[in-house]
Each structure stands twice: as structure tokens, then as C-alpha cells.
Amino acid sequence: MITDKAKLKALLAQPRRIVITTHHKPDGDAIGSSLGLYHYLIQQGHHTTVITPTDYPDYIDWLPGNGDVIIYPDNKELSEKLVEEADIIFCLDFNHLSRIYELGEAVRAARAAKVMIDHHLEPEDFDDYRHWDINACATAQLVFDFIVNKLGHKELINKDVATCLYTGIMTDSASFSLPNTNAEVHRVTADLIDCGAVNWHIHEQVYSNQPQTRLQFLGHCLKEKLEVLREYNTALISVSRQELEAYNITTGDTEGIVNYGLSVEGIHLAAFIVERADMVKLSLRSKGEFPANEICKKYFSGGGHRNAAGGVSNDSLEAVVQKFKSILPEYKKLLIQ
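The chain above was modelled as a monomer; its predicted structure follows.
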């Protein structure tokens, strides 16, 4: 058990076998924070591997170190061997082992010291050391703080570390637009730019490098699928598996579509509900004090942040849409105030 910072620093003082993992269907913060930590650790001679429980979007596959990432379903035997033999396992951007699916049981059983770096609510107690703050705008911000303030190694924030961490902060803060993007976040990103992150290039790679089919799909969602429920100041977009296939939509192509609903004038809550091969997934975004995470936790086996949350269901797409609509009267006072 690692009970304090001094013991963790002592553990990291010599080269170790380290695994970094993050949540299923990783986003920009999950991969950015994982690869940022990876580039820091390899500078100190640690044998470090990033393992993701699933594949992830193309818009982040340009990040330095991406080619070294192991995707668990594609190489289970090697992944489980690395987890079993690891001295330390870093768990980034998630706080429940269920969030890494099959890989979770291997991590739970591993003898390695487990370090959680995360900003989500209600963590599970599987970790030995925790760097956790629900007020952080991104896990990448916490990785920066961990390296600089907990371990005292700001000089090891090189261009690769900075690029990855900047990407994580930029994407999880919705390009620095969310309420928790405070002055400290901007001070961190300024430091990352000083350390080599090229902010305009990162933005271009993430947001201005999309396949034509993705833009056509977005147009379809906005023209044909956007439903505005004015009585509840709520916007809803729902899409079927057939619609995904018609536009050749792959992992990550639906990222951010929910935010378009939230951008409609007067809207306080937006939902994006999508039918996947194995389940229906729901993403919620809200403004102000509205608890999107409460709806996801209470009704859709999920959770997240107050203004950004997600859930799942094994019901049909139509049933999930109707269930979501049936919940809105319960929250009407909050939605219309």
C-alpha cells in the first residue's frame, strides 16, 4: 500500500515495469493524459506500456506515442501478461474498474501498486495511491500537477508530454469553454505551450481534420434528428444503428454532437442517444446547476460530471428515447428556471 507521496516517489526512483490504462472508448483526455504520462515515465527509464480496453477515435491517433499503444481486444495475451508482471499500474480518467471492461479483473488481481489519477465522482476503492480532484477540468491537468507538483519534475515536461496533455485539457474542456476552465487551467496550458505544445496545430488536428462522411452525418443529425422540447428547455438527437452504417460512422465520429443541441438558444439540457451493436448509449450535457450526472446515474446505469455525463441501456432505441422524455417532468422546475 502506498500511503503518501514520499513512498510513491521512492517507488518511482528506480526503473519499474509500468502499465498505464484508461477507460473504454477513450477520448482526447483519456489518451492525452495516458500518453503524456507515458512520455514522462520513459524519460526516467521505466519500461512503460499504455493499454486501452477498446479502440479509440481516429482524431487522436496522431498523438506522439500512439503507435506504441496496445489495444486489449487485439492482443489479450500480451496485455494480461504485462498487467500481471507490472510493478505499478496507473489508472487514468476513470475511477471504477468496470470502466475498463474485461481488463478490469486483470487489473484488480494484479500484484502491482495501483495509482488512480482522475476527476470523476465517487471513486471505487481499488487503488493504493490517489491523485483525485473533481474540480479539475481534465485528467490531463491532474497529470501535469502530478508530474510538476507531486514529483517535482517540471523539467521533464518535454514537447511530447506537453502536446499530449494540452490535447487532453483542450478536448475535455470543450476548447476551454466549460465553467471549470478557470485561471489555473489557463496557467497550465500556458506552461504547456512554453514546453513545446503548438496550440493551433493541436486544435487543427483535432477539430479541422474530419472525414467528409462525418460532416454529412452531422448535417443529417441537425436537419432530420434534432428535436427541441421547449416545454423543458431540452434538445434531443437520437440515431439508429442503420443511420450510423449509412454514413460509415466509426468510433469517435459522434463525439461532440450532443453539444450542438446544447447550443440552441434557451436550451439547458441536451441528449444524444445512439443505438450501438450491443447497447444504446446516452450522452447528456447541461448548463449551470442542472445535474446531468444524476439522471444518468439514477436511470441509465451511468454517471459523470454535473454538466457532462453518460449512460447505457439494453432497451431499444425507441424505449430509451421515451424513457428519457418521461423523466423530464421530474426536473421541469430546474430546467425552466
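The domain at 212-336 is CATH 3.10.310.30 (Diaminopimelate Epimerase; Chain A, domain 1).
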